[in-house]
Amino acid sequence: MPILPEANLVPVFHHSVRSMLESSPGQPSNMPPVESSEGGSLTVEQAIANLTHPDLSLRYYAAWWLGKFRVSEPAAIDALIVALEDESDRTELGGYPLRRNAARALGKLSDRRAVSGLVRCLACEDFYVREAAAQSLGTLGDPICIPDLLWLLQDGVEAARPVSGRPHLAQPCEALVEALGLLAPGTEWQPEAIARIQPFLSHPVDRLQYATTRAMYQLTHETVYGDRLIQALAASDINLRRVALSDLGAIGYLPAADAIASSAAENSFKLFSLKGLLERQVREATPLSEAAIKVMDLMDSLL
User: Do residues 146 and 182 touch, judged by C-beta distance below 8 A?
Assistant: First the structure.
C-alpha cells in the first residue's frame, strides 16, 4: 500500500512520486511459475525442493530465487536456514556459495527465526558468508545480535586490514558498521558501538569511510556526519558519488535534498536517495511539511 496519505488529504501530492513510494509486497504463495535459468518454469515448491538437489547449481539458484521473489512461506524459511549450514557446496578457495545466497535471501524475508543461524554465520571462515550474514542481520532488525557484530570489530582498525592475495579486508567492516548503525541506536550497546565504529572514519577505503559516517549519524544524529556525506557527493569517482547518494537516502538527511538533486549522478540514483528523505519525513510529520513537499517537487523535476 502507499506509504503516503491518500491523495485527497494531500492536494499537492504528485502522482509520479506516489508511484515511486509504493511498497513492494512479497510474492504470494500462489504466485505463477517463473522461468528458470534452464528454460523451464520454477514454482515455490520446486525451489524449496531444489535447495537439497544433487545438482549444486540448482541449490545455488533456488536460494537466490527464493530471496529475489520474497518467498516468505515457513517452509522456504526453514529450508534456507538449513542451507546456512551446508557443507557440500564449496569452492577451491574454501568458500560456501550456497550459504552466501541463503544468508542474502533470509535478509529479504523479514523472519527473525533466521537470526540465530545468521549469527552462527558470523563465525564462518568465508568472508562473503560473514558479509551476507551481517547485512541480513541489519535488515532483520533484531538487536540481540549486536554483541556478535561488535565482537568482529574487537581488533579495531586491524579488522579492516587487507588480506594478502584476496580482494577483501580481514572482516566485512562495511557491512558490520552499517548493521550496527541500524541496530544499536537507543540500545545499551550504543556507546560501545560508537567507540568501535568511530576509528574507521579515517580508513583509506572510501566506501568504509562513508559507511562509518552514515552509522555515526544514525548513532549520534550529529549534523557533522550528514554534512560529510554531502561533501562526498563531489567525489571524482561516480561510483563513490552513488554510494554517498545511497547513504544520504538511508539516513534521510533532509539538508542534503538540493545537493542530491544537483549531484553529478544518474537521475535514478538521485530519485532513490530523495525517496529515502521523503519516507523519513512522512514517518515523522503529519500532515506533510513544506520540506517534504519540496522533496517531492525535486523528485518530480528528475522524472
Answer: no
CATH of span 40-141: 1.25.10.10
37's grid cell: 535459468
Q: State the cell numbers at 45.
A: 515448491
Residue 12: other Cβ atoms inside 10 A:
11
- Alpha helices (runs of H) in 34-172, residue ranges in sequence order: 44-50, 56-68, 74-83, 97-106, 115-121, 127-140, 146-151
pLDDT digits (tens, 9 = 90+) for 240-262: 999 999 999 999 999 999 999 99
Q: Encode pLDDT of 158-173 as tens digits.
A: 999 999 999 999 999 9
Residue 251 exposed, middle or buried by CB count within 10 Å (0-12, 13-18, 19+): buried
CA distances (Å), 202 to each of 175, 196, 270, in order? 17, 13, 26
> For cell 540465530, what's the residue?
116
Tally of residues, the chain: 303
CA-to-CA separations, 26 to 21, 23, 61, in angstroms, rounded: 16, 10, 19
